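Protocol step 6 of 9: fold each sequence in the batch and record its structure tokens directly after the sequence line. For illustration, a two-sequence batch is reproduced in full.

Sequence one:
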Amino acid sequence: MGEACRKTGWQVHAYCLMRNPFHLVIETPQVAPEWRGAGVFLLEQLRGISHAGGRTGEQRMNHSLSSIRWLRVLSAALAVIALSFLILTVIVAVYAFVLAFQARAAPDQSAISHFAARVSPKLMPWLEVSLTFLAAVIVARRAGKASAIHGLFIGILAGLLSLAVPLAFAGRLGLRNMVLFLLTVGLGWVGGFVGQWSSAHDQPHADVRRRSKNPASLN
């Protein structure tokens, strides 16, 4: 546009840049005959660049979504919930073993149930949040493409599954559940970025190790 104004004497009074289109308020005085078509030509070029940029952005998003390995994302989210239940079960089992060892007999089932009911609502959400971050890091490191988006979708799926548990047993969701859902999604996304950064950081070292094992590749 600056080139067009210099060559044609145009005056740009206002402009508005948007994602695809752009809007200009231009004063176009009389110009030399040889330059009369230059401004229109440059405007057409700008319009083409603008549309191409919009298409490029849409293609980049579509490419990122097509690069997601959905099976890994779903498996990671399910693993988060399963491991959370497994860890909680192990903790309750250890507590029952301690009771049995102290009593030198069968443990008190009411005490075990009371312990599980008291610990589960407090511990389970934080296990899910922590494991979501860990799963996002692991999957993002192995994803290669669209690593951070893998972490985001792991967080979303794990968060939805974590909401399904209290909804199935309690029948309703509270503010605490929604806050934990957002925290799960956020840490999943952060885990995706961490895994992406870690993968990019380790790649040069992996190339060096691979070349050192295969000296013929250096020739």
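Sequence two, same batch, same settings:
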Amino acid sequence: MCPKGNQASRFVAIRSGFFHARFWAFFIRGHPWKGTIIAVSLPNGVTLALATTYGSALTVSSATNANPAVLTSTAHGLANGDFVEVTSGWSRANGRIFRVASVAANTFALEGFDTTSTTLFPTGSGVGSVRRISAWTQITQVLETTSSGGEAQFATYSFLEDDYDRQLPTTTSAQSMTLSIADDQTLAGFIALRNASNTRNATGLRATLPNSSIILYNGIFSMDETPSFTKNQVMAVSASYSLQGKPVRY
């Protein structure tokens, strides 16, 4: 039951394996957060997997301005739920990984990708190709991941007659992630990371959260195979991951 009057109550629900806390806040009358639900999550249980096998490039002859975007590729052979790396004339699609939906014989949709703006996605410019990711290899023994970059950048200017500066937003800074992994060179994930680092090709990375939501990245790995040596701490190696486009979340 919800509390009455000026009583306050909080309810915390722990979801299986996810420690997903939902706080039901019932504050005194007039409080701006009265009845607000606040959801927070811990990363415990997240798994990371590296794209290790790609199919041949499938030509995309057209892409619609729609929500979601529908791509035409003759006899593509894709299935709903497949993941594809996109090469496109649309810069906001190029180099990103999407999940396939609404499959038909010669068309498929990029789930959740809104291209209705012809300013951001000029009509007729979305042609290119896609590659299906056909195999993933889990990176095990991950100790932590950190991220950097992605901050907004600005152009600062001032007119001669001004006594103050102005700013215009421009781009965001380059984004990267760093993975710290407990050292074991025999593990499949270690070997896959080393191979990706050696080739320096853009490689997909999938983060699966315990609530089944996912985050898809595409970037270039640089791995340092020299393990750390700190007394009473796990020996670890690190891999830097330079993102080539914005992550996609489902």
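Proceed to step 7 once all outputs are recorded. Observation for sequence two: The CA atoms of residues 157 and 216 lie 37 Å apart.
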